[in-house]
From TrEMBL, chain A:
Pfam families: Thioredoxin_4. Keywords: Isomerase. It comes from the Bacteria. GO terms for molecular function: isomerase activity. The lineage of its organism: Bacteria, Pseudomonadati, Bacteroidota, Chitinophagia, Chitinophagales. Signal peptide: none annotated. Belongs to the thioredoxin family. DsbA subfamily. Residues 1-175 form the Thioredoxin domain. This is Protein-disulfide isomerase. Gene3D superfamilies: Glutaredoxin. SUPFAM superfamilies: Thioredoxin-like. It comes from Chitinophaga skermanii.
Automatic annotation (TrEMBL), chain B:
The keyword ATP-binding does not apply. It comes from the Bacteria. Residues 3-153 form the Thioredoxin domain. One of its GO terms (molecular function) is oxidoreductase activity. This is Peroxiredoxin. Gene3D superfamilies: Glutaredoxin. Keywords: Oxidoreductase, Redox-active center.
Amino acid sequence: MTHQLTPPVGKGDHIQGNPNAPVELVEYGDYQCPYCGAAYPIIKKLQAEFDDQLKFVFRNFPLSNAHEFAVIAAMAAETAAKQNGFWAMHDIIYENQSRLSRDVFFEFADEIGLDVEAFERDLHNPSLGKKIEADFENGVRSGVNGTPTFFINGTIYRGEYDYDSLYQAIAQHIK
Amino acid sequence: MMLEKGTKAPEFALYATPDQKVKLGDLKGKNVILAFYPADWSPVCSDQMSLYNEILHMFDQYNAILLGISVDSKWCHMAFAQERKFHFNLLSDFEPKGAVAKQYGVYNEEEGECERALFVIDKEGVIAWSYQSPMAINPGADGIIGALENLQQVSTSK
């Protein structure tokens, strides 16, 4: 079975890097998943290496029963997006993955320079939960079976996610 | 051979808890998803059952109930389900070992475990879809959802 990313990357997505890059890497991730934590610096390195040849997109796939703080972390990042802080929050969460707790996100919000009061207010917005659920359900339909799952130019990537494997998989799309 | 689409699903009654059995026939009127899997306690992040546990509400939308089945004992299942916070039944195909898996054609004699196989059974107890995944590969849930979607289309077009 080949799995295609459905829906394709669009307006509701968080996109990093050149929007017209020849390669689009989409991650379905869980902020508390240790494997996603391990993939985080690898993606940073790939982004540095491929620069404007690579566009990176993150979609939520929190396993709420397995990971106590996965959903609140996803909500924190989505909330930060309202203040243009999605990627800053995404990064600070992965960089501090071992110390996640219910309250730590306010500390993070402060550290990355968000208006913490507005952040706290927005965190209770019910539409956030819907966005995260929609990401999750679309992921399931696209063949995501765990985290992290990557799609390269719309097709699911079933290989290893060490640097060399991902490097090869991306490089073959660049002429 | 794995049972395929159009076959009547063989009846079974297996322990879901130490003192309670689930009987397939009692679930008539609901779609049933049978997820045979090799063993409890496989790694967390890629774990198939943990994924299904997160999408029970999606199954519910299609009037479908999920049952996990392996040859592990009911006590092992209970510990596994508690530790992983599962909200669905794990059935114990324990004695005679693998008897139900054998009926469905998804018992691996060499390993003494169930294959990683999925069945969607319709409201009348007929297999509507089946799929066997390579032992080490988590098949995800898109195939199940697709099969349930087809069932819904068939029943609304009637």
